[in-house]
Structure formats: C-alpha cells, structure tokens
Amino acid sequence: MEKERVEMLRRIQEVEFACIDLNLYLDTHPTDQRALMEFNSYSQQLMMMKRQFESVYGPMTNFGFSQSQYPWAWLEDPWPWEIEY
Predict the structure, then answer these.
(1) For residues 61 and 82, what is the distance between their CA atoms, to the nearest angstrom?
(2) What single DSSP character describes residue 30?
(3) How far apart are CA 33 and CA 16, in angstroms?
(4) Residue 83, number of CB atoms within 10 A of its CB
(5) I need a surface site. Which of 9, 12, 34, 42 has the fewest CB within 10 A?
C-alpha cells in the first residue's frame, strides 16, 4: 500500500509541475490557445488525482482546502519530508 501511495504522490507531483510550467508559459504567451487547452486539461486531471488520493489516504492540504474523514486525519500521515521516494 505504501508503494502505491508514493507512486500516486509522484504522479501528482509530475502533473502539478506541468501545470506550474504551463502557467508560467501562459503568463508570457496568453494567446497560445493550445497551451491554454493543455493547462486546462492538466488542471482538471490534477484535481481528479488529488480527489482520488484524498479519498484513499486522507487530506493533502489543510485550512479548508481538503475535507477530512472521521477521525481528523491531518496528523495521521507522514509529512512530505518524511516520505521516502
């Protein structure tokens, strides 16, 4: 189960990087429709992946950005720097 969790986190990080990279590109090329379509596609994929991860492993972020199941799960998981990749 831990291997699956790490693989899922890595994939989320890859898609998140693509979103950030396209975001920066679009800041300087706002009329590039293909890049905008890619950004929207990756963004939607990222939201679905995070939702799937959280349904299995608990919240990824706090302060109201992610819901938690009972009991409060935020402190149950290792912190990002505690995960061995």
Answers:
(1) 16
(2) T
(3) 20
(4) 13
(5) 34
Structure tokens at 74: 């935020």
Place of tokens 């492993």: 57
> Which residue pairs, CB below 8 angstroms and at least 24 apart, start in 16-22?
16/46, 18/42, 19/43, 19/46
Q: Are 15 and 46 in contact (CB under 8 A)?
A: yes
Residue 39: how many other CB atoms lie within 10 Å: 19
Q: How far is CA 67 from CA 22, 41, 55, 85, in A?
A: 28, 24, 9, 26
2-47 pLDDT, tens digit per residue, is 889 899 999 999 999 999 999 999 999 999 999 999 999 999 999 9
